Amino acid sequence: MRSIQNPPGKTFTVVSLTEPGRALAERLLACWPNAEHRYRPQPFQEAVQACFQTGQRLILLCAVGIAVRTLAPVLRDKHRDPAVLVMDEHGRFVVPILSGHEGGANEWARQIGQALGAQCVITGAQRYTQPLLVAGLGCNRGCPLERLLSLLDQTLSAHGLRREELSALASIELKRDEPGLQQLAAALALPIHFYPARTLGAYGDRLSQKSEIVFRETGCHGVAEAAALAHAERLIDHPFPAELIVTKQKNADATLAVARVYGNPE
Predict the structure, then answer these.
(1) 3-state DSSP call for residue 131?
(2) Which residues lie closer than 8 Å to 50 by C-beta, 6 or more apart?
(3) Which residue in 44, 146, 163, 229 is a FRET match for 259, CA 20 to 30 A apart?
(4) Architecture of domain 130-263 in this structure
(5) Domain range annotation of the chain
(6) Does residue 90 surpass a pLDDT of 70?
């Protein structure tokens, strides 16, 4: 099971009714620690409806029929209702039942399915979405293009990825004038984006490792992973977090990480 971190704040509420459901909820919270779990809330219908009416996204670990009957009295429209997913208690299937497009339930279901190894069942008409990959980079001053390309190609090849799958490059603002990074972007025909240390610092809890040395030099605990995550989440128009599919790799002159998010570029 892949651990996926999330930004601060309660991200969604999981409601379970059975012991297997409670175990599944614990797996979800292991991936998204900021989520809330409510086990057999009483009275059930009123508790779920109240949560829904605050705009909170829901994962209901129960039959679709129970979910529909529970929420039907408080539905408004697809532009205002929060996203709702239903999962069976064993985590085999995840089904978006409300606000699939407008509320992002379809994209969210895909993320849940990937994290838990569940089959995502989307019944509505599908908008075309794609995995968007961002390579985050850090490098020593004066790092030559050849060293950056070597690290990039070795890393992508080792993880079954290709240059053509990348949507963008990203790094820290301190490296904006680094010739090697600009040359790499030109060689790959990709945009490169630079973020201030304060922005990258917000991703500290999502890094595979924190470096005090990097913090002293840059003001954030990691450049490559944080830059990849930061830009991937700015490529899309929904609030779901990106995931690191390649944690920090390095050679003597540079570091590289790759983040992925699903959606359409803004």
Answers:
(1) strand
(2) none
(3) 146
(4) 2-Layer Sandwich (3.30)
(5) 13-120, 130-263
(6) yes
State phi, psi for 72 to the nearest 5 degrees: -50, -45
Region 179-202 average pLDDT: 95
58 bridge partner residues: 13, 84
- 130 phi and psi angles, rounded to 5 deg: -150, 155
Beta strand spans in the chain (E):
13-16, 36-39, 58-61, 84-87, 93-98, 119-120, 130-139, 166-172, 192-195, 243-250, 254-263
**What pLDDT is recorded for position 3?**
36
Q: Locate tokens 């301190």: which residue?
A: 174
Q: What is the largest CA-CA distance in the chain?
A: 64
- Are 58 and 75 contacting, i.e. CB atoms less than 8 angstroms apart? no
* Overall average pLDDT of the 138-161 stretch: 95
Give per-residue burial for 47-62: e unless 16+ CB within 10 Å, then b.
bbeebbeeebbbbbbb
Segment 134-159 shows an average pLDDT of 96
